[in-house]
Amino acid sequence: MNNFTKEQLEDIEKKIIFNLKQVYDPEIPVNIYDLGLVYKIEFEEKEPYLHAIVTMTLTSPACPVAENLLEQVKYVTLAVDLVDEAFVHLVFDPPWDKNMISEEGRDYLMMNGTLI
Question: Start and end of every MIP18 family-like domain (predicted)?
């Protein structure tokens, strides 16, 4: 029986975020987490398994690499210890806009002279 504590789930979420920061949008040199594409990470315990649900969006509904990005998100989420299954929910509401980019992401873009 796995009843995860709040602290355990927070630790797992931090590890998922770390992994998500290794996934990049091919058109913008910022990882998908700092780009603001990941809206939330939730957990569902289905004894004895832990499912992670990542809700995210894309910079455009017509993104040509959408399928690849979603597969990468699932892969890096499953790579975290104790995550037995990963689901990626793609949403377009609210739509992504450049105001969703984190401070770290903005700094990186400015440092590299990239304008959005």
Answer: 16-82
